[in-house]
Write a sequence for this structure.
């Protein structure tokens, strides 16, 4: 019985891996990807969709990297809009890309008043013609502590955060 159960688990595991790899794809080399995403903010007990973000990037000539990533977003603290950018992110053999980084933020007086944390992730799909993209920006003000500034699991545990999830396409 144990042998049969182990075999069934192995078959299910292999089938799951095959299905997952069928969804991911390599990007089109040297292509421009553009699209939009729902912009969720954490100014409520749960993520609330309050805006739309625009997403664009290119792929390198060989399709091994995402270059010139730009994603717009809105934020409720300070009530404005901005963009997250990243020059280059490698694309894995499974068609995934991403980056996490942080930088100090300055207030109107020019003095550092906190840290902005950014997490970008994406997966190419549909033969590389499309990609699902997600990016989180979390502004954590000086004197505030956030245990996991890159996590979307608990919106109220973050600082002033926005999370965009969308799709981009190439022609």
């Amino acid at each position: 019985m144990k042998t049969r159960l182990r075999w069934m688990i192995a078959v299910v595991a292999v089938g799951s891996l095959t299905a997952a790899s069928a969804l991911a794809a390599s990007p089109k080399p040297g292509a421009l990807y553009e699209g939009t995403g729902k912009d969720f903010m954490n100014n409520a007990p749960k993520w609330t969709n309050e805006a739309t973000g625009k997403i664009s990037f290119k792929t390198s000539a060989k399709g091994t990297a995402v270059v010139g990533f730009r994603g717009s977003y809105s934020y409720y603290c300070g009530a404005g809009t901005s963009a997250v950018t990243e020059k280059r992110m490698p694309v894995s053999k499974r068609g995934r890309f991403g980056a996490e980084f942080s930088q100090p933020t300055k207030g109107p007086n020019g003095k550092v008043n906190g840290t902005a944390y950014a997490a970008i992730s994406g997966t190419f799909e549909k033969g590389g013609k499309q990609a699902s993209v997600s990016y989180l920006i979390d502004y954590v003000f000086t004197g505030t502590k956030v245990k996991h500034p890159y996590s979307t699991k608990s919106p109220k545990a973050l600082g002033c955060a926005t999370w965009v999830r969308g799709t981009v396409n190439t022609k």
Q: What stands out?
A: The chain has one helix and eight strands. The radius of gyration is 19 Å.
